[in-house]
Amino acid sequence: MLNMKYILVTGGVISGVGKGVISSSFGTILKCCGIEVTSIKIDPYINLDAGTFSPYEHGEVYVLDDGGEVDLDLGNYERFLDITLHRDNNITTGKIYQMVIDRERRGDYLGKTVQVVPHVTDAIQEWVEKVAQIPVSGSGKVPEVCIIELGGTIGDIESMAFVEAFRQFQFRVKRENFCVAHVSLIPQPRSTGEHKTKPTQSSVRELRGLGLSPDIIVCRSEKPIDQSVKDKISNFCHVAPDQVICIPDLSSIYKVPIFMETHGIVEYLNDRLKLGISPMPPARKFMKQWIELSDKIENLRNEVNIALIGKYTRLEDSYTSITKALQHAANSLGYKVNIKFIDSSKLEKAMLSEDPVVYHEAWHELCKTDGIIVPGGFGRRGVEGKIEACRWCRENNKPFLGICLGFQTAVIEFARNILKLENANTAECDEMVEHPVIIDMPEHNPGQLGGTMRLGKRTTVFKESAALSKIKRLYGKKTSIEERHRHRYEVNPKYIKDIEEAGLKFVGIDKDAERMEIFELENHAYYVAVQFHPEYLSRPMAPSPPFVGLILAAKDKLKSYLARGCKLSPREHSDYDDTGS
């Protein structure tokens, strides 16, 4: 292939219909064919990035190696395609307008009136072409196909400039290098029981009216769609029947690329974009690892129950990467993970007087699980509940993994109950606290929230004294590791010596030996917490070590696993292999 190929994925009828997973699946299929793939996510909001969003707005904020705070769909792309994206792979209206305004201030437009067309639309096209050329895989090769997901739905006023940009773009790069996949919902009203195609017809008509004709229509539905419905969509939306792919809800998102491949998507894209895939490989061979992974997940016999003690549990997308990391770790060990989301504020003593039933139900759910994870978050709400969960895990030898704020709340709990510093707290919740065991970092600028945290991939060094540490052995006895960070606060150096002497060992530090990164409690099944976010680098085929440790400890298998040099016993291997048979 000489020219870059582009696949634009748009959405119709409603948002949240699965464009991210379908975009990732296009990439997965092509990558399995030996093609280098990159991805771009376009979010039409005016924010410069996702960094200042509440998780209830768009789900979690995903962090990249370079510190970019982006939409969670980029996490899907990285997990599916095993690539490393950059902050410029996430385009927002804010970024585009900032770039255009900066050019105008410099005088780049030579005194002309700056308008949406051509200046904003040209800026969008230039951004896409530039980012598409940046290598994102370990091979360092320039991508051959760029998959672009346009957020929202066709017809949204926010995305009009982007739609117009791609209308022009299809002529700029030529037809054989550009195709459009339109993802639309096919509702099935309970009153009639039949699938309705009118919303999709209207959505495709609107897309055509804006100058883009879909080459592929991906129909999403709860239940499988009849051939007659598919034929109707083909007829009224002016595409061939083999260009309509109907994807019902599947038991695992990892089945989506396999499902799409069985419906001839490789053959169509090879012909439409002149990809030069020859000869066409049999699916069972070139998608072998995905088929095996899907089969194993489908047939898992054993279960493990994990409680997630969070602040944003009303929307499970707030913890997408943690959920995926738990699944990756559990599946690799032969377990199906059941995650119980518990609002940390329900565990607080204040809730006992406010609503005793809710308080006791929350604690009952927590006590029933095999392990606890306390993830990150911001602000004071629910912090005391997280501290109580940390205390209960420490006192009851319950496997525990703390991440970011979970790391900090565990340090606060230890200072209060072991060091007897009753008023210990974080400066985030109480600036005048008597014992600030958690303080803000000197480089943090409190006057501006966006992009001012400690962000991106950074090195963590294991102390020499940590040779027998569980977490170091889970990381393969490496002397240092690299993980992604997103935090404003750190452990106060003034209290580190006292904390360690009392038994909570900081086994991992930053390369300047200034910041505490990992701690591990002595004489406990698994009481580990990390300041970084290990979930961001977890992959379906390469689970994150802290999560592997939590799952093993939850099933009382960690000690034997470490004794065998981080290997499953022959019997455990046999149990796991049987699940895929």
UniProtKB/TrEMBL annotation:
Belongs to the CTP synthase family. The keyword Ligase applies. This is CTP synthase. Keywords: ATP-binding, Glutamine amidotransferase, Ligase, Nucleotide-binding, Pyrimidine biosynthesis. Catalyzes the ATP-dependent amination of UTP to CTP with either L-glutamine or ammonia as the source of nitrogen. Constitutes the rate-limiting enzyme in the synthesis of cytosine nucleotides. The lineage of its organism: Eukaryota, Metazoa, Ecdysozoa, Arthropoda, Hexapoda. Residues 316-550 form the Glutamine amidotransferase domain. GO terms for molecular function: ATP binding; CTP synthase activity; identical protein binding.
